[in-house]
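Priority: medium. Attachment 1 of 2:
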C-alpha cells in the first residue's frame, strides 16, 4: 500500500515537472518563433497544462505515444496539431501552422533531452 502511494506521488511530481518544462519551452519558442505567441505567465502555464492533457488523452485514445518523436512523422504531426488546437483553449495564445510545427520540434527536443514520462 505504501509503495502504491509513493508511486502516485511520484507520478504527480513528474506531471508537475513536465508542465513546468513545457511552460518554459513554450516561453522560449514564443520568443524565437514567428507565428507562435503567448502573452502572460498564466497563459504559459495554462497552455502547458492543456498541451499535456491533450497529449495524454490522444495517447490513451489512439494507443500510441503522441509526443513529437514518439512515432516518427505521425507523432510529430499529431503533436503539432495538439499545439495548434491548444490556442482555442488558451486566451493570449496565437499559433500559426508553421509556429505549431516549430513548437512541436522544440518540445520534441525537450522530450529527448529531459525524458519525463507522465503516463
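Attachment 2 of 2:
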Amino acid at each position: 500500500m505504501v509503495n502504491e502511494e509513493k508511486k502516485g506521488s511520484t507520478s504527480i511530481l513528474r506531471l508537475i515537472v513536465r508542465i513546468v518544462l513545457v511552460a518554459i519551452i513554450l516561453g522560449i519558442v514564443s520568443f524565437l518563433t514567428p507565428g507562435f505567441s503567448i502573452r502572460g505567465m498564466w497563459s504559459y502555464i495554462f497552455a502547458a497544462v492543456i498541451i499535456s492533457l491533450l497529449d495524454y488523452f490522444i495517447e490513451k485514445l489512439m494507443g500510441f505515444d503522441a509526443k513529437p518523436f514518439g512515432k516518427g512523422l505521425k507523432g510529430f504531426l499529431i503533436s503539432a496539431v495538439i499545439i495548434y488546437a491548444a490556442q482555442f483553449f488558451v486566451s493570449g495564445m496565437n499559433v500559426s501552422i508553421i509556429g505549431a510545427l516549430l513548437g512541436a520540434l522544440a518540445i520534441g527536443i525537450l522530450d529527448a533531452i529531459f525524458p519525463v514520462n507522465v503516463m
